[in-house]
Amino acid sequence: MPTAFEISARAVRQAASVLADHLQDGLPFRELRPLIHAADPALVRDWDALGASVTTDIDRNLSFTATTLTKAGWLTRANRTWRLTGLGVEALHDYPDPVTFISEAGTRYDHWRAGRVFFDAAAKLLSELPDDRWVSVEDLAVEYEVDPEALAACLQGTRPEGWHLALTSDGEAGYGVTLQSTETDAWRTLLVRDELYDEAASSFDTVRALPGKRLTADEITALVLGEEPGQDSVPQRPRRVWVIRGTDSGGAGLIRGLWRDKGVVTLPADRLPALAQGTGPQRVRKAVDDADSGATSAQRDRRAEELHTFLSRMQEGDIVVCTDGPKAYLGVVKGPAVYTDPLEDAAHFTRAVAWQNLDAPLDLVRDLPAELTGRLGDADARIVDISEFAARLEPLVGSEPQRAAPSPDIEARLPDATPELADALLQADTGWLQECVELLRGKPQLIFHGPPGTGKTYTALALARHLTGGSPSNVRLVQFHPAYTYEDFFEGFRPRLPRKQATDSGAGKREPDTADTSTGLVFDLVKGPLRRLADSAEERPAEVFVLVIDEINRGNLAKVFGEMYFLLEYRKEFVHLLYGSDEGRGFRLPPNLHIIGTMNTVDRTVALMDAAMRRRFSFVELHPDVPPLTGLLSRWLTEQQHPQDAALLLDELNRRIAEGPANDRDFRVGHSYLMQPMAHAGPRALDLVWRSQVIPLLTEYHWGDDTDIEETYGLVGIRQHLGLQPGDGA
């Protein structure tokens, strides 16, 4: 039976094959879809046969997966029309096998994803270029430290505003990208429109821009630094999404009155000069410093950032979201930022907005994705950038707005247990391990509990590495102890010595740190293992991440987890972090982050977990008397070609413990004590392990109950009872 990946690969390549027959005009997806199914009638049947293992239909899966081809530069989906690019035609020829085809695109997608912030920044700069200017792909790639070929391909697929202004160093369209005639014509049309077309240097199949209009590398750097040569304002950028809030003097939301009635959004301009749209961040900060000299530095930072966003980053066509209790209003920015005459006895900066749903506001819970609503929780922030949700919100402000945002991307799925994993853990079959996988699928927290020596940590790490595909960066191990804190686990301030100001002979001057004058130390907010792993999981939602917490019950769990205590149970919710590092945007534990803990049930020095924490975890026992541990030591001894004496001795020891005064099954001893190499290193090796590790453990168990430990559990007595003689392995 084909896998979901193989079926998805078939659908994607079939789509490319159909589009290859429509290079001139492309196809809207509604017309492309039936042609794909006609070419491969078994697609729907094979996909549906996967049952509950897939959460979307094949068409929606194709729509999501096509993003991979777009970032690779093989497909463009401008104006809702799918077109195969020249690179896509080449890939179709070079990779006839569907799995190879999508895997190769996936490699390119992974490269884009790893440098996404830089690719996005390069695309944004293209939208900010001064009129009648173009840049070379090489210069742009150097500025943002990305591969120029990957950048050119990505621009060809994604087609951000200004994409046609990235050319070769001599002004030729393509930069090594094979162009179809339609692409050449499109490039020519856009350059003519922008008065950049060099007709004399161009031909039927070659398009070039005027060489004198090229922006130099230094001019590109000036743009990046906010010094737009010859420009009084910041040019238009790609569409973004902003949460914006405002209240009147009585504390009522402005969306109820002024914003609604006037079709605007505003930002207070108390004591500020009439700054123009596009004012740079340095000038904005100076104006704020002059106006709010009595405010703290953090308050001035926040106001300057919000003002610069309103004046320069927000652009016509951007989406704004305004909340009023449980209701959300969406609008599209329709005008530049202007300094207005006083409104209600106060000066404001104003932007015109076309509100889309004043009569039918959205419900924050019902109509918007949970991860989006989590970003709306900081009531103190006037403007919050949530542009990562642009694709989800655009359908809500179109000519025929939908009532619900599109479904999220396909989530990472835990792989099933394999015979190889079972063999590595000396288990007879995959049944027990598969149960663990299913528990993690239902609730992403699991605890292995049992007596010492039962291989809890070893099993947790082996399972974690299997679930993550063996990626070392996707697994992290921590161990709790009574002194472990939230600051150790999630994030907290850590002291360090301040950096000294560099001398003239050094690599360059830099400002010294601001230190605590009483100690000479600097305090940095440092991420702990959970925060680092959660951030990685959020950035790579298609991958599985596992945090293994050894001895989880030895920590004060409520104290260590803090607000994570809530997020363990409510993975779709967002909270605001103790130290504010979420910057008002909210934080969640990603659904692709799983936690596996281990708990020693014999340790009576720690309190048991409270009921609230127990509810957040599934519990699986690892005990010598129950599968999968029954017979495990015997199987290992056979595999290692050792006598079975150690297994017989352990069984007899555990029988005596069960019948002893403690009468506690958790006091039994696990197999790992007798699986150490030192336990089988010579004729007296087992005696040494028994005397130095097993007997001290049992002595602690029976402290104060007058049990003769040596008489009851001594190796000599047990050997005699079983009729065994000292020797290698016994």
How would you characterize the overall build of this protein?
With 730 residues, the chain is of the alpha/beta class. The strands form five sheets. Strands 6, 7, 8, 9, 10, 11, 12 and 13 form an eight-stranded mixed beta sheet that branches. Helix 13 (281-291) packs across helix 14 (297-313) and helix 26 (645-659) packs across helix 29 (715-722). The longest helix has 17 residues, at 4-20. Mean pLDDT is 83; it is low at 229-236 and 500-512.
Count all strands and give the number. Answer: 20
The separation of the N and C termini measures 50 Å
The biggest beta sheet is recorded as: 8 strands, mixed
Portion of residues in beta strands equals: 5-15%
Can you describe this structure in just a few lines?
By secondary structure, the protein is an alpha/beta fold. Helices cover 39% and strands 13% of the residues. Strands 6, 7, 8, 9, 10, 11, 12 and 13 form an 8-stranded mixed beta sheet that branches. Strands 15-18-19-14-20 form a 5-stranded parallel beta sheet.
Tell me the layout of helices and strands.
Elements: H1 4-20, E1 27-28, H2 29-39, H3 42-48, H4 58-72, E2 75-76, E3 81-84, H5 86-94, H6 98-114, H7 116-127, E4 135-136, H8 137-144, H9 148-158, E5 166-167, H10 181-193, H11 217-224, E6 241-244, H12 258-262, E7 264-268, H13 281-291, H14 297-313, E8 319-324, E9 327-333, E10 338-343, E11 346-355, E12 362-363, H15 370-373, E13 383-385, H16 390-393, H17 419-424, H18 431-442, E14 445-450, H19 456-467, E15 475-479, H20 486-489, E16 491-496, E17 522-527, H21 529-539, E18 545-550, H22 557-561, H23 564-569, E19 593-600, H24 611-615, E20 618-621, H25 632-639, H26 645-659, H27 685-701, H28 709-713, H29 715-722
Helix pairs in contact: 1-2, 1-6, 4-6, 4-9, 7-8, 8-9, 13-14, 26-29
